[in-house]
Amino acid sequence: MNKQVQVRKIAKNWYHIILMLGVVLMLFPFIWMFLSSFKTEQEILFVPPTFFPLEPTWNNFVSVCSRIPIFRYFLNSVLVAGVSTLCVLITSALAGTVFAKYSFPFKNLLFIIILGTTMIPFECYMIPFYLMVSKAGLIDTYTGIIAPLVITSFGIFLMRQQVETIPDDLMDAARIDGSNEFGVFLNVVLPLSKSALAALAIFNFMFGWAFFVWPLIITNSSEHFVLEVGLTMFQNQYTVEYGPVMAGTAISVLPLIIVFMFFRRHIISGMAMSGMKS
Amino acid sequence: MPNTPTNIKSKYKIKGLERRKFRFAMVILIPTVILYLVLRIIPILGTFYLSLHNWNLIKLHRPFIGLQNFVKIVKDKFFRIALVNTTVFTVFVVLISVTLALLLALALKKKSKIGSFYEFAYFLPFVIPMVPVSIIWKWMYDRTYGIINFVLTSLGLKAVGWLTDPDVALYSIIVMSIWKVLGYYMVLFLVGLRNIPDQYYEAAAVDGAVGWQVFKNITFPLLKRMTLYISVIATIQAFNVFTQVYVMTTGTQGAPAAAVRVLVYEIYQNGFRYFKMGYASAQVVVLFAIVMFISLLQFKFFRTEDY
């Protein structure tokens, strides 16, 4: 009797076994990276490999930090992702508000053009973009890296959707109280759009952080490398030295894992919301 | 109503308000339009312009050559390889990742404690950028010291040159790419699933529908839009594959470049290694046309009456 119930319970939950197997597959690469980064130069090349490091060592981390300015790369990434996110928040909130609540000639046409460019990935215009940036003398500068990231069609679209849900009466009430249009934007629109702005910020920060092909093309001095580019260059140079390469990768990944652990719900729902709205 | 003084005043007020609103709209709109022109429209048009020229960064003579770049593309063996590889990559990644993501979402539909752990684990690879992820997989794929070959050989199987064997390399990158995006599509499907009102399921239960019937008649039709959206972004992303190929094929342990030549890599090489920017732009135009064509096909395939 009892056994039967148990069997039924297992049969009902059989798929958890597969899901757990999947979890192992999803997490293993990261676990393996951390374990590898603590192994000595000899141990990492053991055949058969050891699972846990026999004599855990920090040497790989020391060696990365002495060979490349990895923390500088990290700060560069923070700067690029942060500034571009700030720009996108400002441009999207303002333009989204104007498209949602104001009337002007060619409004629909302009909006369609803006929407149309969402479908066009950056790779499709990076060559002329490079030529323009080079003409402006911005090759190998932070401004050059950030330039393509200051505005997104997607952000304008998301914010327009959001602001459309705000009742006109609320905005009129602020006007009657003597507020000017910018004041209405600051005191009515922004506070009511917090969750959309947060979702946009998360989406954009991640996008800016992982943006690779452009910084790869446009930077050539190490001091302007973002983390992704710096890491790529490092592993190109030291392909066979897996220990330091794994340590560098671990340094770049750990903060992201921690952030994701703490803000998992916000990040997932933010990304999902960004997906839904389009 | 006669023009009483108060009425005139409020009329002026409204006029003033309209003018203020219009001015505000323009103050925002004009810079936005300028940014758009400079950062999007001009470069996009520039791609078409360059594609019609023999435009080399290091040569000063850059003549208009009509469609000659496109003629050259048709004859270009490397471009053909890249196109085939990218297509294979896209078909596998999109079909497998979207199907698996849907299955995962169905399994995780009910919210539970363990469910959020699953969400964490499956979403994690998506949150971590492509570069570190590619480096880790390159290490696991290593022919001699990699963990995957160790598992294979200890099971009595033969070691595989995951990234060095030209017949295998593309598929190794496909596996890793599916692993990377799976969680994102899963979460999108979960949103879609949780948006389906319970009444539908209750009604189906009353009618005695079970399992597969429920999925076929309720879940899937109501998920069509989400499926369309996911497959469109999945296709666009897959066709633009670059980073993982770039990271995993450079260096001595990496894959042979020709075996995993993909379109954006080809464009990158032509444009920024050989500075043949006119030719590379023509390749971009072809890539863009293909992506647009596929997206339109998907729209047709999934088109459905509103519900």
Written account of the structure:
- The complex is a heterodimer of chains A (278) and B (307).
- Helices cover 74% and strands 0% of the residues of chain A.
- By secondary structure, chain A is an all-alpha fold.
- Chain A has 2 domains: 2-61, no CATH class; 69-237, Orthogonal Bundle (MetI-like fold), CATH 1.10.3720.10.
- In chain A, helix 2 (14-37) packs across helix 14 (242-262) and helix 13 (227-237) runs antiparallel to helix 14 (242-262).
- Chain A starts with a helix and ends with a helix.
- The mean pLDDT of chain A is 90.
- Chain B has a single domain (76-302), classed as MetI-like fold (Orthogonal Bundle), CATH 1.10.3720.10.
- Chain B is 75% helix and 0% strand.
- Chain B contains 12 helices and no strands.
- The two termini of chain B are 48 Å apart.
- Classes of the chains: A mainly alpha (278), B mainly alpha (307).
- At the A-B interface, helix 2, helix 4, helix 5, helix 6 and helix 11 of A face helix 1, helix 4, helix 5, helix 6 and helix 7 of B.
Quick summary:
The complex is a heterodimer of chains A (278) and B (307). Chain A is mainly α. Chain A has helices at 2-12, 14-37, 59-67, 70-101, 107-118, 126-135, 142-146, 153-164, 168-176, 181-192, 194-210, 213-218, 227-237, 242-262, 264-277.
Could you say what the CATH topology of the largest domain in chain A is called?
MetI-like fold
Q: Class of chain B in CATH? A: Mainly Alpha
Put simply, the count of helices of chain A is 15
First-last Cα distance of chain B: 48 Å
Q: What is the number of E strands of chain A?
A: 0
Instruction: Name the average pLDDT of chain B.
Output: 87
How many domains of chain A? The number is 2
Structural class of the secondary structure composition of chain B?
mainly alpha
